[in-house]
Amino acid sequence: MPIHRLPYTLDLNAMISEGKLRLTIAYSRKQYRKETLEQVAGLLQSALQEVITYCVAQKQPQLTPSDVSFKGLTTGELEQIAEQAARIGELENVYALTPMQKGMLFYNLMDSQSGAYFEQASFDLRGEFNIAAFAASLDVLVQRHTVLRTNFYSGWKDEPLQVVYRNKRSELYVEDLRDMEEEKQNEYILEFTRQDKQRGFDLAQDALMRVAVLRTGEECVPFCMELPSYRDGRLVLVTGDQRSVCELFCDTGP
């Protein structure tokens, strides 16, 4: 049998095969005794078992700096961000802001009610409307697009970050205006859209898409949809995806 010369006096190789972690240790007998490496292997196995036991005992996934897209965070800093974000939801990822996003955020912080970078679309839907299917499809839309589960975090070295939550509910407001006269309905809708735009978004915690449904008749349903334009997606793409998901729920039931 040919003897292969080792490139190193101690060589560790690890791979996952058939769902199992396999570790191989190759060593130079001129440098190490067999008993020493057996002891090292035993200690390594014990340490790995401790890690496995700890991970299995956790009720939710624990992020490490290597798991997130933003590089430069220490374990302690990431834990601090996750802890502070816990009041909103479970942290999934962290991103840096683009230069344009930083500028937009700056103007929002200077005057959150200016209406700048605020996209609002109002339109009427005529025909039958399934509120339950629409609400369910809206939640699916939020889960599908991480951009709709994102907020801004400003507690890291004075540099704002984007934080993505693993789960976040959509914001849907439904009101029945069918008891009002048509003129009153129109006045109410105009005032509602004005106040809703003035409300703006709290970029640190709000759902960054909200939808209002104001029912004016049996087959007429005015919509009002708002998004801040800090997001990478566009309103037309969101509404298009929303429509396809909603059709699926209408066919199969929520």
Q: How are the secondary structure elements laid out?
A:
Blueprint: E1 10-17, E2 20-27, H1 34-57, H2 75-85, E3 91-96, H3 99-110, E4 118-126, H4 131-144, E5 150-156, E6 159-165, E7 171-176, H5 182-199, E8 210-215, E9 220-228, H6 235-252
Parallel strand pairs: 7-8
Antiparallel strand pairs: 1-2, 3-6, 4-9, 5-6, 8-9
Summary of the model, kept short:
38% of the residues lie in helices and 26% in strands.
Kindly describe this structure.
- Helix 4 crosses helix 6.
- It contains six helices and nine strands.
- A hairpin with a 2-residue loop joins strand 1 and strand 2.
- Strands 4-9-8-7 form a four-stranded mixed sheet, covered by helices on one side. A three-stranded antiparallel sheet has the order 3-6-5, with helices on one face. It has a two-stranded antiparallel ribbon with strand order 1-2.
- It is elongated, with a radius of gyration of 27 Å.
- It starts with 9 loop residues before the first strand and ends with a helix.
- By secondary structure, it is α+β, with helices and mostly antiparallel strands.
- About 4% of the residues have low confidence.
